[in-house]
Amino acid sequence: MAGATALKFTVRRRPAVLVSPATQTPRELKRLSDIDDHDRLRFHISIIQFYGTRESMSGVDPAVVIRDAVAKALVDYYPWAGRLKELEGRKLAVDCSGEGVLFVEADTDPPFPCLEELISDVPGSSSILNSPLLIQVTRLACGGFILASRMNHMMADGQGLMQFLGAVAELVRGMPSPTVRPVWQRKLLEARDPPMPCFPHREFEEVPDAKGITMPRDKLVCHTFSFEPQEVDTLRSQLTPDLQKHTTRFDIVVGLPDSGTFTGP
């Protein structure tokens, strides 16, 4: 638009740091289930949340309190602080190493037209392996802040991420521990090793190339059937009195193949 003033938006980011669990956590290898590590789930999801200024938060640095709460939440949610590894057969597992999640602090002056500025693309953070979670807190000049997070979808779905962020929020408010504790039982959805199928799994069989149809073309027969009004009335007379009043001509004709009275040429 001619004469319009260019909208300036600047985000000043600090280098990414690692936030580790506040206390020591188990060092173990947790395998993802066969559902979680499916190829179609190998991507990241970003969530951006906006919070306005509050008088009760005057003088409080949101980045500091959120960073501390994340460290406390990771005591229970310690797989998020680990690293995804690829095992034999492209099987994925979480090495619960306690290295920590990526955390970025930033400052900006509203307004802002570019959402991509609100979550930093730390080198290596968008790959499938390695750190499964990235968090950025952007302080606004008005006193509010923006909480952005990007998670590996194989680690959790949207509800799982919100459960973790809910735990962080509870710890920010001063609760001693999260209300909901995580449970890791993904081995229940993992195939046995070695596989021991109990019945044929036809869903994994090769589907013949039928070019978009469900039966071979050489078995299809093309024929035209004409139904005159008197023929439809004859068919309608075979219905119960109640159905005769409410059944359409379309329903009568389409229902013929299922009625057991239809004979082709």
Report on the architecture of this protein:
By secondary structure, the chain is of the alpha+beta class. The protein folds into two domains: 11-189, Chloramphenicol Acetyltransferase; 217-256, no CATH class. 20% of the residues lie in helices and 18% in strands. It is built from six helices and nine strands; from the N terminus they run E-E-E-E-H-E-E-E-E-E-H-H-H-H-H. Strands 1, 2, 4, 7, 8 and 9 form a six-stranded mixed sheet that branches.
The oligomerization state is single chain
**How many individual β-strands?**
9
CATH superfamily of the largest domain: Chloramphenicol acetyltransferase-like domain
Count of separate structural domains: 2
CATH class of the largest domain: Alpha Beta
Number of helices: 6
Order of helices and strands: EEEEHEEEEEHHHHH
- Share of residues in helices: 10-25%
Overall, the morphology is: elongated
How many whole angstroms does the radius of gyration measure?
30 Å
Distance between the termini: 70 Å
